[in-house]
What we know:
mainly alpha; elongated
Amino acid sequence: MEETIAWVLVIIAIVVALPFVLRYVLIGLYWFFAAAAHLYFSTLDTLTGASLIPAAPWVMWLFWGAVIGAALAAWTLAPVYGLRQYRVWIALAPFLLMLVTAALRAVIFSP
């Protein structure tokens, strides 16, 4: 009986302490998600070259979206043209091209 009462008190203590603990957990999670979102968009801007057109970054996003869309269309049609073994490379090609252009921009525009 006493052990049951002790467990009930432990559960009540956990339920009471939960909002206080979750406050700091949520603060940490919000900070983490904000930092991750900033890193994501910074990386996206760097890979797509959107910082070359600072007034309209969507232009470069539109261009790279078209490149990725074309690669997906080629990936879908690859078996028709007998290129099934190259499907992985077709899917990776736009992202490798992004990395190459980002590296070239870093080399060319570095101070």
